[in-house]
Design a protein that fits this description.
This protein is mainly β. It has no helices and 11 strands. The strands form 2 sheets. Strands 2, 4, 5, 6, 9, 10 and 11 form a 7-stranded mixed sheet that branches. A hairpin with a 4-residue loop joins β7 and β8.
């Protein structure tokens, strides 16, 4: 049974940093593409970043490029999203997603506010 558990969200001031984690079970992340999405109140779900299974290449939405970094630890079967220079518009629930399985985690709240 596939399970994704996100953690690491919280309240941070503008300009601050957070690292989100997405721990997977019942599924091997190292050989599969994994993605992060986010959804702000009243807005559509937005793709944020992707790390491909083969080769580990990464892609980012223009809105986060240069500030966010997606990575993975195959030994821990965990995907990370390092978020730097956070802005109030980054406030959202951040969700981990497995495209192959069309499976979503439960999400973790990130709030950027002074």
């Amino acid at each position: 049974q596939v399970q994704l558990v996100e953690s690491g969200g919280g309240l941070v001031q503008p300009g601050g940093s957070l690292r989100l984690s997405c721990a997977a079970s019942g599924f091997t992340i190292g050989t599969n593409t994994m993605s992060w999405y986010r959804q702000a109140p009243g807005k559509e779900r937005e793709w944020v970043a992707r790390i491909r299974g083969a080769g580990g290449s990464t892609n980012y939405a223009d809105s986060v490029k240069g500030r966010f970094t997606i990575s993975r630890d195959n030994a821990k079967n965990t995907v990370y999203l390092q978020m730097n220079s956070l802005k109030p518009e980054d406030t959202a629930v951040y969700l981990c997603y497995i495209p192959l399985k069309d499976y979503w985690g439960q999400g973790t709240q990130v709030t950027v506010s002074s």
